[in-house]
């Protein structure tokens, strides 16, 4: 994605660089929101489409949709929580391992640092100066090994925040396909309600796509098309399955 000179300047102020290096940011948790939002919208609308295809009625769609929001949303949030928790546990484990290695075989650990930075192009006195600077501070030494040898992040996201943000994205965005369904009580027919749900969901997919483009820093048009297409395919599959199963039962689809 090509950035304007102003955007490049904003991303490379002293404050922006320090904040980016320091650890997880709001943008990072935005990814969790997008993940939950996309999945919530797709799965909930797929349920609505499947119910419409099977002609089970709007009430069934509401019940199954709400059940999906709470149950599947909770499941996804827990999965993201456990992933973030595992990242924290892995970091703690390898930090302990590196501390033991530095204590027991410091010369070999120092040689690892030397080879790591030699592979980056450092050599001669400059290489030895880098090795000396890193190894004279035990905490810096361990952190360097965690990043360079094990490929770990020193500041993994908070498990609770990841889980809660994922759940919020799932429920908030996943509610979009259900919003028109209560209109059945105001005299609208099921076909009109399903069409309204489809159109509103399409708008929701587009908005999620725009937000996703901002998070991953890509063109909004491509992100919108990809998000809408993914949701549309899932809904089409669900509707087709509903129609096929309903044909076996002998009743017309919506």
TrEMBL record:
It holds the Pfam family VIT1. Keywords: Membrane, Transmembrane, Transmembrane helix. InterPro entries: Ccc1_fam. GO terms for cellular component: endomembrane system. The chain crosses the membrane at residues 45-71, 163-184, 190-211, 223-245. GO terms for molecular function: manganese ion transmembrane transporter activity. It is a multi-pass membrane protein. It is found in: Endomembrane system. GO terms for biological process: intracellular manganese ion homeostasis. PANTHER family: FE(2+)/MN(2+) TRANSPORTER PCL1. This is VIT family protein. It comes from Bremerella volcania.
């Amino acid at each position: 994605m090509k950035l304007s000179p102003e955007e490049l300047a904003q991303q490379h102020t002293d404050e922006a660089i320090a904040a980016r290096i320091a650890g997880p940011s709001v943008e990072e948790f935005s990814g969790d929101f997008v993940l939950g939002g996309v999945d919530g919208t797709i799965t909930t609308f797929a349920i609505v489409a499947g119910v419409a295809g099977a002609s089970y009625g709007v009430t069934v769609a509401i019940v199954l949709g709400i059940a999906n929001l709470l149950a599947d949303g909770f499941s996804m949030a827990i999965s993201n929580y456990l992933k973030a928790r595992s990242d924290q546990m892995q970091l703690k484990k390898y930090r302990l391992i590196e501390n033991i290695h530095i204590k027991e075989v410091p010369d070999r650990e120092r040689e690892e640092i030397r080879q790591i930075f030699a592979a980056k192009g450092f050599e001669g006195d400059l290489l030895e100066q880098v090795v000396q600077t890193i190894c004279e501070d035990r905490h810096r030494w361990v952190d360097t090994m965690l990043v360079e040898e094990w490929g770990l992040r020193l500041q993994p996201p908070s498990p609770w925040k990841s889980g809660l943000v994922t759940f919020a994205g799932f429920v908030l965005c996943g509610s979009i396909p259900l919003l028109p369904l209560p209109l059945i009580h105001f005299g609208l027919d099921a076909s009109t309600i399903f069409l309204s749900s489809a159109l509103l969901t399409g708008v929701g997919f587009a908005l999620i796509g725009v937000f996703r483009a901002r998070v991953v820093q890509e063109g909004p048009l491509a992100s919108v098309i990809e998000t809408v297409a993914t949701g549309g395919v899932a809904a089409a599959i669900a509707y087709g399955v509903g129609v096929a199963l309903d044909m076996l039962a002998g009743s017309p689809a919506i």
